[in-house]
Amino acid sequence: MKKLSARRRHPLAALVVLLFALVASGGLYAAFAPTEQAQADSSAQSLAIDEGKRLFAVGCSSCHGLNGQGSSMGPSLVGVGSAAVDFQVGTGRMPAQQPGAQVPRKKTIYNQSEIDQLAAFVASLGPGPATPTKDQYTSTETDAISKGGDLFRTNCSQCHNFAGAGGALTQGKFAPSLENVDPKYIYEAMQTGPQNMPSFPDSTMPEQQKQQIVAFVRYQANEAPNPGGLSLGSLGPVTEGLFGWIFGLGVLIAVAIWVAAHTTKAKKS
Amino acid sequence: MSDDNLPTAHDAVHGHGEAAVAENPFADPGLPAHEPRRTDIDERAAKRAERQVSLMFVVSMLATVGFIASYVAIDKSKIVYIFPLGHISALNFALGMTLGVALFCIGAGAVHWARTLMSDVELPAERHAIEADDETRADVIQQFKTGAGESGFGRRKMIRNTLIGSMALVPLSGVMLLRDLGPLPEKSLDSTGWKEATPDAPIRLINMNTNEPMKAEDIGIGSLTFAKPGPSASRPGGLQETDEDFQQAIAKDALMLIRIQPDDIKDDKSKGLGFEGVLAYSKICTHVGCPISLYEQQTHHALCPCHQSTFDLSDGARVIFGPAGHPLPQLKITTDPSGYLIATQDFAKPVGPSFWERSA
């Protein structure tokens, strides 16, 4: 000990002590450190969320906030679910081009995998309706169309017209036509209630009834015969009256003029 | 046809084409010279025109027969494909075409007849004053006075007055027939199918889609649900579409259920009638009674498709636009111990449009 204490003022003593402390703390850490190493989460879902977060930061955050919490420009996306993202971005309504009464449908600017990533990120913000799968919105019942017609007339026709041709609402808003709309988007719209459309959650309109409505809308748009010949847009008295006045009376007037202008005289005057 | 057959000189009777004289540039030029038609001078052309007219009338007859035949023969549900029109009802197409041809041929035949065969000689019809000459008028007035004097109309005042009375009363029989438009609604519009609801015997709200009662938590914020009354004392099975008077009943009973964040409800009374933000409004417009449910979930406006009456459902369904005169009546709702939405009383005000006896 004497030897050791005699050298305690040696210039290298501090270094020795430091080395000793390092070895000791390293050894203790090695002995007590948790054996399981923290793994970076590299599952597909988490990657999609990360990727979606990046896309969100670039394309959506200026209105909806960096974390989708909403701002004065756009509503909060917490709890809207992936179905709402799939609908809004998939139909080109989002990102919105300009503020207005209603954000119209336009060309989509994200591809489906990017939409899925955005949807995964927004779905991770809070629980909400998930993007439906094909068998969720495809009905296998044989009488789905007639049942769907009943449900459509009760719940949808007041805004979207009896044939799904769409209609006007207040102050520039409108209910869009349902022709040529992907069944998935019809289903998602009922689930999430985009913009001013009220939602029809599964608690008041079960999945099976949504399938029936989708079946009816598809039938109406693609296969339904047109008993009267010209549908004139299925808009009812507006187009029919216009057609009657302009074409019906127009043809009568033209014929009357034609008849009167053609003389039957033997000599042309 | 050669020009030999045409008259060379203007017809002296009809043509006064030479009347325009140089010394008076504003003189009446008269009618132009009458020129005959080919059918007037060529008997063969006239016969041909006659056959054409008859042919059109015969075609019309055949088309009418075709109309009756297709009405009898074609099944009304038959759908056929016709090129520019697409899939259309065969019956509608056949009826429209045959009736159209039948009417058109009558019209075209008549026009052709008039233009080719009926006389087309120009006839001036001069305008004269409408009234008769003074002598005739004086005579008529004299006759009237004589008649009036002989009838004693001015002298026998009782006959005169009773005649006037009876003439005045006769139109009343026509007015009485308007009674057939009645009977007056009396009290039937004051109450709805919810009238039997009391706190002891509440009526459940039945979802129109599922035909099942609903719990408050089923109604999501921003959702729209339609409801009808459930079982009550007089209607133990609840209102069903198979009921004979379903249409009359649902025209008063129909509800639309929405849910608004309680903080967003501007009208405290309306908030009190709802349950945790679930509000039940009559679906019947107070203007002329259209079903009104064009609900915008962000603005909470409900719009009537008929005349654009707009109601703010977050403010007690106040009318904010359009011809409606009253806010939509709101049904007071709550939940029963098992959590189902119930009504414990009728609407406080009559639903639907105004009527003479309306109490509120």
Structure description:
The complex is a heterodimer of chains A (269) and B (360). By secondary structure, chain A is an all-alpha fold. Among the domains of chain A are: 36-125, Cytochrome Bc1 Complex, Chain D, domain 2 (Orthogonal Bundle), CATH 1.10.760; 134-222, Cytochrome Bc1 Complex, Chain D, domain 2. Chain A is built from 12 helices and 2 strands; from the N terminus they run αααααααααββααα. In chain A, strands 1-2 form a two-stranded antiparallel ribbon. The longest helix of chain A has 25 residues, at 237-261. Chain A is elongated and about 150 Å long. With 360 residues, chain B is α+β, with helices and mostly antiparallel strands. Chain B is built from 8 helices and 13 strands. Chain B has helices at 38-41, 43-73, 90-116, 134-151, 157-169, 171-177, 246-253, 268-273, and strands at 79-82, 86-89, 203-207, 224-229, 255-259, 278-282, 294-296, 301-303, 310-312, 318-321, 330-331, 333-335, 341-343. In chain B, the strands form 3 sheets. Chain B has a 7-stranded antiparallel β-sheet with strand order 11-6-5-4-3-13-12. In chain B, strands 7-8-9-10 form a 4-stranded antiparallel β-sheet, with no helix packed on it. The longest helix of chain B has 31 residues, at 43-73. Chain B is extended and about 100 Å long. Classes of the chains: A mainly alpha (269), B alpha+beta (360). The interface between A and B is large, with 35 and 54 residues. Chain A: It is found in: Cell membrane. Chain A: Residues 1-30 form the signal peptide. Chain A: Its EC number is 7.1.1.8.
Q: Rough shape of chain B?
A: extended
Most extensive contact: A-B, 35 and 54 residues
Low-confidence stretches of chain A: none
| DSSP helix fraction of chain B | 25-40%
Number of helices of chain B: 8
The averaged pLDDT of chain A comes out at 87
Subcellular location (chain A): Cell membrane
Binding site for heme c 2 (chain A): 156, 159-160
Membrane topology (chain A): Multi-pass membrane protein
Organism (chain A): Kitasatospora viridis
